Amino acid sequence: MVTAGPPRVEEPDAPKRDRRMSLAQHLVELRRRAIIGAIALVIGMIIAALISNQIIDLLTEPIRIVSNSRASDFAALNFNTVTAGFDFHVRIAFAIGIILSAPVWLWQIWAFIMPGLTRKEVRYTVGFLSAAIPLFFAGCALGLCVMPHVIEVMATFVPEQGALFYQYDVYYDFVLKLLLVIGVAFVLPVFLVALNFAGIISGIAILKGWRVAVLAATIFAAIATPAADVLSMLMLGGILIVLYIAAAAVSMLFDRRRSKREESFLSADSSS
């Protein structure tokens, strides 16, 4: 007589084995998610193309201010080829399309790599992204506020006899790089907290480096803004220093919680 054995217990790592894919399956999955991200980018570019005129008006407002300050056609955006106007609209649509479609393609990247992460790593990554994305956009918004002052101050160095024509592609690259640099600078404190979570640097070590941080923030603000625009430099540098101190405070709080967990774990081992 054959008796049934004990019920089979599913191994804890069985779901992980189910998620394993071959190289070909990985490539298919990567292609699928890349196509979804590309479609989202195209849709974002189409939406951006519909409002590109308003965006161009916003970005070129400093040029109009400079021109009106001289009461003449002193400053203007220069298009020197037949297709330059179309190219400018495409550049604007592409940049705004990337921003509008960011939630979609960021999710596609995240969904592709997420099966390889533990639940704890997933939770930390979501927390970092939730902090990094708003900070990046806040930095870009501050860059939009600083950008007109930078252009206006730089225009004051042009002689009265001269005319200032901004080449459209150079002007676009300047504005885009300024926004990206300030946006990325706002995200750097998040990376410090990530290094602390990984155990590479302690919160005390981050706090002790405040002198270097203040110097670096001041130099960065001085480079990102013209020397004559002291207000923008102080505003940018001050915000970066506050973010650095906040990163040190969060890291110190995490270190304290981690040390308490270690103490409780050691005490439990000694009592047993």
From TrEMBL:
Its main location: membrane. It holds the Pfam family TatC. Keywords: Cell membrane, Membrane, Protein transport, Translocation, Transmembrane, Transmembrane helix, Transport. The keyword Hydrolase does not apply. It is found in: Cell membrane; Membrane. GO terms for biological process: intracellular protein transmembrane transport; protein transport by the Tat complex. It is a multi-pass membrane protein. GO terms for cellular component: TAT protein transport complex. The chain crosses the membrane at residues 34-56, 92-113, 125-151, 171-198, 210-228, 234-254. GO terms for molecular function: proton motive force dependent protein transmembrane transporter activity. Part of the twin-arginine translocation (Tat) system that transports large folded proteins containing a characteristic twin-arginine motif in their signal peptide across membranes. Together with TatB, TatC is part of a receptor directly interacting with Tat signal peptides. The Tat system comprises two distinct complexes: a TatABC complex, containing multiple copies of TatA, TatB and TatC subunits, and a separate TatA complex, containing only TatA subunits. Substrates initially bind to the TatABC complex, which probably triggers association of the separate TatA complex to form the active translocon. Belongs to the TatC family. This is Sec-independent protein translocase protein TatC. It comes from Microbacterium halimionae. The lineage of its organism: Bacteria, Bacillati, Actinomycetota, Actinomycetes, Micrococcales.
